[in-house]
Structure to design on (535 residues):
């Protein structure tokens, strides 16, 4: 593999030039996506180094959480395991991914301070690193999602698998990942500049987990109720969870997610264009 | 080796750092400043932070085979110049143009995970330096032998001394076959034996028609490696002169 053998760095030359440089950073990061992959993999491996189960702790701890919450809340809500377990399992796993990308996004640039201050690596490499690390995490949780969809739970004799619309759920997940991605980039830049942001983001995600139908059923509200309609997390969950459980996704959920992705990336790229030169000095 | 000759060309480089104090990084302070209005802001730069000019209108031309020593007091801009040459710092004015593969050895701890083994850290550093995993596996033995750390390579980095870390970092970074090597003076941490092998490798680099830029306070080190020298004083550079005139430059 060739390393850049030619490098030209110049002073500011107006906004269009800054924008091309930001896009160049993005393109370079795709050319070296294997580096982001290697870093993300290293993060995960080093987190579980020395433990006997290794990364399968991710799966195990999530399985314990799903089992515990299912046991308690299905009793509290008077729901059958068939109704509740797959619903809550998919909800927790997906919300964990979204909040993980957001919370860890705060550290994206701060954590990479050493590398950013002495190499010409693309900044986006570190955004992908955070995203890929959380995707790998999610892959470990996928076992649980597949299990609750395949295994028939009492009192039903059939599992959900037959009705699951996996391609539609995959499409929904792409939208979720796109939205989580721009949020991650934005909070990454913001946290590098203002050290209060990580605390703000943690508060938001914790609050959102209780306000979003992760543990409780969205059906307890009318579908256009403000708690659901203006909650981006609800739409992200629904886009993946509903197809997997064989239910229809409301058209406005798709529309909101698509508009959010476009507007969000435009905003995040604009902020990145304006701050790209400065990020290394924030650190 | 490469069709295009190795070169560094810096024209009118000015670097300004916004200094974000601990206070300035707090959102509350930033919002407070907005509400107070322009009064406080007038003494500050564009981004609400005091700006320090690290380098002013610096020109530098280096060709293959040049080994430039940078001298100057602490805070004179040596490391800033190296960081600008590495591509990490974007110029505020002027241009930095580098032809050739760059390897920057500025920070010993680049990409180092203290709880990972020496081997894993070589892999990590190699990846950061732009090698593919196959390239790294091919050279792993070579790099390992060069470090002289033997069985310690299988131990976590946190058990290493500073000198051992320097060996590993130097071995991994110089294995990339870089054309342009940027070094801060930490290279001096190794013991005498390591200094000797490092010296051999650096000379090898220069023989391959590369460029070396070394920032150091050690006059002897500069005389050993460099054939040219430049003095930085408060971000302003002296003309590049021959290493034999080092004493005159130091006296100036």
């Amino acid at each position: 593999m060739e390393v850049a053998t030619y490098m030209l760095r110049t002073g500011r030359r107006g906004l269009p030039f800054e924008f091309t440089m930001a896009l160049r950073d993005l393109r370079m990061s795709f050319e070296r996506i294997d580096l982001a992959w290697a870093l993300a993999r290293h993060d995960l491996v080093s987190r579980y180094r020395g433990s006997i189960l290794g990364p399968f702790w991710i799966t195990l701890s999530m399985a314990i959480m799903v089992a515990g919450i299912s046991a308690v809340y299905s009793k509290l809500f008077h729901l059958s395991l068939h109704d509740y377990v797959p619903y809550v399992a998919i909800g927790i796993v997906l919300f964990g991914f979204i909040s993980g990308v957001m919370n860890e996004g705060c550290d994206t640039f701060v954590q990479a301070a050493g590398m950013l201050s002495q190499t010409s690596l693309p900044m986006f490499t570190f955004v992908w690193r955070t995203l890929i690390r959380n995707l790998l995490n999610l892959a470990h949780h996928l076992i649980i999602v597949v299990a609750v969809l395949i295994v028939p739970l009492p009192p039903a004799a059939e599992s959900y698998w037959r009705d699951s619309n996996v391609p539609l759920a995959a499409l929904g997940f792409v939208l979720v990942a796109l939205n989580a991605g721009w949020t991650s980039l934005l909070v990454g830049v913001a946290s590098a500049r203002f050290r209060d942001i990580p605390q703000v983001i943690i508060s938001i995600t914790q609050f959102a987990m209780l306000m979003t139908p992760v543990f409780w059923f969205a059906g307890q509200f009318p579908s256009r109720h403000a708690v659901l309609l203006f909650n981006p997390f609800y739409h992200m969950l629904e886009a993946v969870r509903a197809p997997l459980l064989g239910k229809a996704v409301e058209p406005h959920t798709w529309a909101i997610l698509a508009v959010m992705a476009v507007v969000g990336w435009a905003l995040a790229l604009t902020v990145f264009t304006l701050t790209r030169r400065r990020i290394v000095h924030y650190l | 080796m490469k069709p295009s000759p190795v070169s560094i060309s810096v024209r009118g480089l000015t670097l300004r750092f916004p200094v974000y104090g601990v206070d300035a990084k707090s959102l509350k302070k930033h919002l407070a400043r907005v509400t107070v209005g322009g009064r406080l802001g007038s003494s500050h730069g564009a981004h609400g932070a005091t700006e320090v000019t690290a380098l002013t209108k610096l020109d530098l031309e280096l060709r293959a085979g040049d080994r430039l020593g940078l001298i100057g007091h602490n805070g004179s801009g040596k490391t800033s110049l190296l960081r600008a040459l590495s591509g990490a710092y974007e110029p505020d004015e002027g241009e930095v143009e580098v032809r050739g593969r760059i390897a920057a050895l500025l920070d010993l701890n680049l990409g180092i995970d203290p709880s990972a083994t020496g081997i894993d850290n070589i892999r990590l550093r190699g990846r950061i330096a732009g090698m593919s995993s196959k390239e790294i596996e091919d050279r792993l033995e070579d790099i390992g032998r060069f470090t002289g750390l033997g069985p310690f390579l299988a131990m976590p980095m946190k058990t290493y001394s500073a000198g051992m870390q320097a060996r590993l970092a130097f071995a991994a970074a110089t294995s990339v076959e870089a054309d342009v090597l940027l070094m801060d003076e930490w290279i001096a941490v190794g013991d005498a034996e390591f200094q000797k092998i490092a010296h051999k490798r650096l000379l090898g680099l220069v023989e391959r028609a590369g460029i070396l830029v070394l920032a150091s306070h050690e006059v002897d080190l500069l005389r050993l490696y460099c054939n040219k020298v430049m003095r930085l004083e408060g971000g302003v550079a002296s003309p590049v002169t021959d290493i034999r005139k080092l004493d005159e430059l130091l006296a100036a």
